[in-house]
Structure formats: C-alpha cells, structure tokens
Amino acid sequence: MAWIYLTIAGVFEVVWATFMKMSAGFHQPVYTVLTVMGMIISFGCLAMATHRLPMSMAYPIWTGIGAVGSVIVGVSFFGDRLSPLTWGFVALLLISIIGIKLTSH
C-alpha cells in the first residue's frame, strides 16, 4: 500500500505544480485553492508512504515523479520546448527513479 501512496503523492505533486502555474502567481483564486489542495494530498500521501518506506527511497522517487511529470505537462499543455540534450537528462532521471526502486530493499 505504501507504493500506492507514493505514486499518488507523486501524481499530486505534478497536479499542484500545474495548478500553481495556472494560478498566475496566486492571483487566480480557484487555481490557488486547487494548488493548496494538491499540496495537501501530495504531502499527506508522502507522509503515509514514508511510514512504511525509507525516506532515502521515498523522497527521491516522489520528487522524480514530480519532475518528470512536470516536464511532460509543461511540454504537452504549456508549449515548453526542450532540447534533445534536456530530453536525455529527463530520460536519465526516469532511469534513476526506476533504479532506486529496483535496488532498494
């Protein structure tokens, strides 16, 4: 169940980061509220995940899901453009997330 919480926490990290962008510096009240709600869910699920998983594993996976997910959202919905080299580093980040999961006890 801890891995499910960690996955949900990572997804909601992407959600709150996306809504924070859409809040225009917290000037759009609806998106500001959605940002805070996303943060609460993300941090709450991370807290539940770290109850069973080591922090040294859970935290980097959580931030990695958020980082890779935010890149995908930025490119897909906000028109962000990344160089091929940047995409290579995003791929390395994804490989690192998977590696941490596979090599942790």
TrEMBL record:
<keyword id="KW-0812">Transmembrane</keyword>
<protein>
    <submittedName>
        <fullName>DMT family transporter</fullName>
    </submittedName>
</protein>
<keyword id="KW-0472">Membrane</keyword>
<feature type="transmembrane region" description="Helical">
    <location>
        <begin position="30"/>
        <end position="49"/>
    </location>
</feature>
<feature type="transmembrane region" description="Helical">
    <location>
        <begin position="85"/>
        <end position="103"/>
    </location>
</feature>
<keyword id="KW-1003">Cell membrane</keyword>
<comment type="similarity">
    <text>Belongs to the drug/metabolite transporter (DMT) superfamily. Small multidrug resistance (SMR) (TC 2.A.7.1) family.</text>
</comment>
<keyword id="KW-0813">Transport</keyword>
<dbReference type="Pfam" id="PF00893">
    <property type="entry name" value="Multi_Drug_Res"/>
</dbReference>
<feature type="transmembrane region" description="Helical">
    <location>
        <begin position="61"/>
        <end position="79"/>
    </location>
</feature>
<dbReference type="InterPro" id="IPR045324">
    <property type="entry name" value="Small_multidrug_res"/>
</dbReference>
<keyword id="KW-1133">Transmembrane helix</keyword>
<dbReference type="InterPro" id="IPR000390">
    <property type="entry name" value="Small_drug/metabolite_transptr"/>
</dbReference>
<dbReference type="InterPro" id="IPR037185">
    <property type="entry name" value="EmrE-like"/>
</dbReference>
